[in-house]
Amino acid sequence: MRSTSDGAVLFANLNADPVYEQLEESNAFQLVNNALGALRSGVNAHSGRVVKTIGDELLALFPDGPQAARAAIDMHRGFAAQALAWPGGSRLTIGFAWGPVITEDGDVFGDVVGIAANANNGPARKKPGTIVMDGAALERLPAPLSGTCRLIHSLKVRNGSAIQFYELPWMPGPT
């Protein structure tokens, strides 16, 4: 059954290719699988739903932007200790966006999915360890979180408008 509602779509990517290149495949798979478990925990702790994982990437849906932001922070913190075992350290990137989401058969569709993917694959990919969101998600954050964000990138879209992307800083440590 198909439904449409507003939500926050989040992509997290471990960018684990170097891990697979430097470790035996079964060891690399175990590291990635453990890391995905830490990411799932962050999603679940903030009322999100893991839509799917593909390789070293996770796609999740949240009912609101602040939940996605807090989950992203917890995901980075939860993975930080595991990343010490990764050749070269953490390459985790997270991007999310807010807007109308079409859900059908457990999957998600719509422009917001593409915007979240662009947040993660564009500005975030250039600087591992970051959390990047679109302006619509930023508008939904409460002052303590939104006040720390900074504009890092704009992307022209097909209708000539621009989507602005913001970095949400986070610090390692207890949640």
Short description:
The protein has 175 residues and is of the alpha+beta class. The chain contains six helices and eight strands. Helix 2 (25-44) runs antiparallel to helix 3.
Keywords:
alpha+beta; single chain; eight-stranded mixed beta sheet; globular; 175 residues; 8 strands; 6 helices
What does this structure look like?
It is a single chain. It contains six helices and eight strands; from the N terminus they run E-H-H-E-E-H-E-E-H-E-H-H-E-E. Strands 1, 2, 3, 4, 5, 6, 7 and 8 form an eight-stranded mixed β-sheet that branches. Strand 2 and strand 3 form a beta hairpin. The longest helix has 20 residues, at 25-44. It is α+β, with helices and mostly antiparallel strands.
Average pLDDT level: 89
Shape: globular
Unreliable stretches covering 5 or more consecutive residues: none
Alpha-beta classification = alpha+beta
Strand content is: 25-35%
Number of strands: 8
Q: Percent of residues in helical segments?
A: 25-40%
* Helix-strand string: EHHEEHEEHEHHEE
Question: What's the number of helices?
Answer: 6
Q: Radius of gyration over alpha carbons? A: 15 Å
Please describe the biggest sheet, giving its number of strands, its sense, and whether it closes into a barrel.
8 strands, mixed
Q: What is the CA–CA distance across the termini?
A: 37 Å
